[in-house]
Amino acid sequence: MKQLKIQKEIKDDYATTEAFNTLKTNLAFCGEQNRVIMVTSTLPGEGKSEVSLYLAHALAENGKKALYLDCDIRKSVMIGKYKIEGVDKALTHYLSGQATMDDIIYSTEYDNMYMVLAGPVAPNPTELLDSEEFRKLVAKVRGEYDYVIVDVPPLGVVIDAAIVGKYVDGAIVVVEQGTIRKRMVINVIKQLKRSNINVLGAVLNKIDETNSSYYSGYYKGYYKEYGEYKN
């Protein structure tokens, strides 16, 4: 297995570490059956990819074999944002028949943490994600990793999350503080539920650290239930 090099260091300051330890712990309380977890948001820019990566890293640090699976094949930012080197083949190569499953799974310099990157933008992303090849990939990694964290495009923009949701155990919604209206988030949750996707909770992201009513870190936390949004 080839190894990637993540040039941009994953932050390990106290606040970030504690926030993701909380997220990781609450995920465990959702039940050990929830191992393939999809992370989405309402709109672009809310930080779902960073939350996905950091969650995979936190799980790996806890001794779990964790895979970050980048399914944002419309507009992934991971390679550029984290200055990732060593990517030869990626998800779109596999889904379009240009690579095998083994070609696209990489180890990293972080123990127990593995990655599949999205690859070149595909002209038919919905078709590729709704394919037998994608189903087989999820089935393979489900059997080989303790956790698979699946990063998908914002559901408030495109339908990809509902398609990928057929193959996951549950979903987490990332919400940026102060930019997304409550009604928009409720609509995303309703869409997930209509697609029979188990909504595990949410991460409030990019919080205002000057507001003492919030947790003093970048990520607010994780909430298991959405009872108030059932209607």
List the helices and strands and how they pair.
Blueprint lengths: L4 E2 L7 H16 L6 E6 L6 H14 L4 E5 L7 H4 L2 E2 L5 H5 L5 H4 L1 E2 L5 E4 L8 H5 L2 H13 L2 E5 L8 H5 L5 E7 L5 H13 L4 E7 L13 E4 L9
Parallel strand pairs: 2-7, 2-8, 3-6, 3-7, 8-9
Antiparallel strand pairs: 1-4, 5-6, 9-10
Helix pairs in contact: 1-2
Summarize the structure.
The chain contains nine helices and ten strands. The protein is of the alpha/beta class. The strands form two sheets. Strands 5-6-3-7-2-8-9-10 form an eight-stranded mixed β-sheet, with helices on both faces. A two-stranded antiparallel sheet has the order 1-4.
Summarize the structure in words.
This protein has helices at residues 14-29, 48-61, 78-81, 91-95, 101-104, 125-129, 132-144, 160-164, 182-194, and strands at 5-6, 36-41, 66-70, 84-85, 106-107, 113-116, 147-151, 170-176, 199-205, 219-222. With 231 residues, the protein is of the alpha/beta class. It has a single domain (16-21, 31-225), classed as P-loop containing nucleotide triphosphate hydrolases (Rossmann fold). Strands 5-6-3-7-2-8-9-10 form an eight-stranded mixed β-sheet, with helices on both faces. The protein has a two-stranded antiparallel sheet with strand order 1-4. α1 (14-29) packs across α2. The protein is globular. The protein starts with a strand and ends in a 9-residue tail after the last strand. 42% of the residues are buried.
